[in-house]
Amino acid sequence: xxxxFRYLAAVFILAVGLLSAASQAxxxxxxxxxxxxxxxxxxxxxxGGNDTARLQAAIDHCVPSAAVYLGPGPFLSGPIExxxxxxxxxxxxxxxxxxxxxxxxxxSSGSCGHIDRSGDGCRPxxxxxxxxxxxxxxxxxxxxxxxTLMAGTAETWWQLAxxxxxxxxxxxxxxxxxxxxxxxxxxxxxxxxxxxxxxxxMSHVERAxxxxxxxxxxxxARNTDGIDPAASEDxxxxxxxxxxxxxxxxxxxxxxxxxxxxSILDNQFGWGHGMSIGSELNSGVSDVxxxxxTLDGTTFGLRIKSDPSRGGLxxxxxxxxxxxxxxxxxxxxxxxxxxxxxxxxxxxxxxVLRHVYGTDGTLVMRGFDxxxxxxxxxxxxxxxxxxxxxxxxxxxxxxxxFPSPPGAAATPHYGASNPCVVxxxxxxxxxxxxxxxxxxxxxxAAPIDR
Length: 450
Fold this sequence. Notes:
Glyco_hydro_28; six-stranded parallel beta sheet; glycosidase; Pectate Lyase C-like; hydrolase; 3 helices
């Protein structure tokens, strides 16, 4: 079955369905911009050496709702563990760089900096484990040093990842920030760059806000996802610039729990693998809102990926006001991501695209089989005449879609109607002088209009 298309007589019938689905698909909180910490419990200046011990001591002795403040200049650290209610505040011009010694990140296996079959041998640089409140704040930079030679070797973290790929194994490299079973955590204003592995990884996180963050890592740095909310709920990622060597954002739900009520609002992506859901979907992903997103040169645009070895139900996902250009696959909803067998069939339902625009590329919608088709609704979805569709095992409701998918009634092409001409903004380059190095007071910010 190539596809089944439903063309409704009136646009308002589709619009009613879109609005109904969108009312549930989002972070359930009334999210406000994170405010500056109420107090500072310790002010640290660069020491010129390894700052791990004094950073950890300052965090350990900090009172709730206060911050450890890093002044301008270079800091060097191995893994540090945050505690509830404490914020690490980086001043403009502060640069916290990860030490390049794999021994500093070792877990009990001793495999950090090596290749094996598990890839879980390193501690993260910054961890939030079972914390409540607190986070990261300021206009400084956290640098993972992914392109730096690992101590005692002739190989960088990124080269280790490429070698693991060529050997069919997994690299052991530290994530930049890991949140595990944390609640009410926020990351505001910080620049994250050059992670050895993922930049921000979440697992079983409740109520997280990522606001005005810059993530900047080379396009060829393997497995350097920007932000990965996994098995988490009530997460908002907003006003951020992200370009990486892998998924810009990837929402995941493996065997440990579902991911739901996630809002991705007013963000801009540079290079990377796009706005992804998957590939681990065993426990299900639902109630996701992606609104006001630009994807400038990402390999994939809007992507849902899985296969029978790790599939599950993805439902109530709404993409609204999306601008794309120079993407190889602007839309890629695929249920056969890998060649793996299993009984966990991917099923994508109530997937809505509204006011989505792009240039050329291949538009893929591939359901698993006729008994498990994709369920897609599209309104005002427009690409250049050079874009091509690949549709299989999909039930599609479409109004004003160009180019028309296979078997659909022709839709006129109105090139002048594309509102994306002014949507793309330059990626911030001079991160160390962002806002002139001046801390602004965000406490008067209004709630997000969603």
